[in-house]
Amino acid sequence: MAPRRRARPAPRKAASHVRRNLAFWERTQAWYDGRHAARLDGAHAMAWGHWRIPESQLQLLGPVRGRDVLEVACGAARWSIALARRGARSVGIDLSPSQLRSARALRSRARVRLPLVRGNVEALPFRDRSFDVVFSDWGAFTFADPERVVPECARVLRPGGRLAFAATNPWREVTTRPGLNHQSRRLLVPYFGTRRLDFGPGDSVEFTRTFQEWFELFARSGFAVERLIEPQPSRGARSSYLSVRDERWARSWPIETLWQLRRAGN
Ligand SMILES: C[S@@+](CC[C@H](N)C(=O)[O-])C[C@H]1O[C@@H](n2cnc3c(N)ncnc32)[C@H](O)[C@@H]1O
User: Fold this and answer.
1) pLDDT per residue over 129-176, tens digit each?
2) In whole angstroms, what is the distance from residue 248 CA to residue 258 CA?
3) pLDDT > 70: what percent of the chain?
4) What is the CATH architecture of 16-263?
5) By the 8 A CB rule, do 235 and 171 touch?
6) Ligand 1 in contact with 21 (CB < 6 A)?
7) pLDDT above 80 (res 8)
């Protein structure tokens, strides 16, 4: 099934963080894919976050067969390809042409039907109530503004639909700062009031919220939180996203949050 597009006037000029993150992903895509592909492919394709916890264990998406499933900020779309193989009507959207090129190559190898759309998750080019499930594994809720993304996900979800995503945890943000490149055991950045993290010229812009702000935003947008998971890795767990030092840190503090929400309404 083709993605249910809706005509939207193109924004005159993308917000500065969108331009910065587009440039960042265009510059780093090949490096990123080379470093992480083995942890994102095959058995790990349907798995969450830094520790690649299998969806079969967490069940954040619920049933997908025959459902309309949108992956926001899909990257190379490995998740969406795996879901399409399991009978989901998957659609992927991402900002980066390089990521989408990679996604198209993987899609043709997998021979699945998977519409891939280039676009900004802050203004989704889909009609209201088009999807049963919307999800993101470290993309849309970290690199785009949650104040825009959460209401957009609510809009394109059908009542009762699921939103699930992995994103940063405030502990990660308050224990590092631009240029440090590792997690500290000291509090370096205020928890209150830190909403946008600018890692400097040529680097990405990320977003974070306090837990109270996340809950208020979800309630305003018509979501009820069903589960919140702060994964604690076992001793010796490895992540291609972290140094050994940061892996040790992450056994004491949560580096990421996994959310499962339900769109209100009937
Ligand atoms: C860490 S990757 C996540 C993709 C995949 N889950 C993975 O782990 O490789 C982050 C993705 O977010 C995308 N992205 C960043 N800002 C975006 C935006 N405003 N709209 C759509 N995609 C965006 C980037 O292009 C990139 O592909």
Assistant:
1) 999 999 999 999 999 999 999 999 999 999 999 999 999 999 999 999
2) 20
3) 95
4) 3-Layer(aba) Sandwich (3.40)
5) no
6) yes
7) no
* Ligand 1 centroid – CA 120 distance (Å): 10
- Residue 94 Cβ inside 6 Å of ligand 1? The answer reads yes
Ligand 1 center–CA 71 separation, angstroms: 10
Is any ligand 1 atom within 6 A of the Cβ of residue 115?
Answer: no
Asked whether the whole model's pTM tops 0.90, one would answer: yes
CB distance 80 to ligand 1 below 6 Å = no
CA of 266 to the centre of ligand 1 (A): 31
> Rg for the chain (alpha carbons), in Å?
17
Q: Residue 29: CB within 6 Å of ligand 1? A: no
DSSP state of 216: H
- Domain regions of the chain by residue span: 16-263
221-247: b (≥16 Cβ within 10 Å) or e? bbbeeeeebebebeeeeebebbeeebb
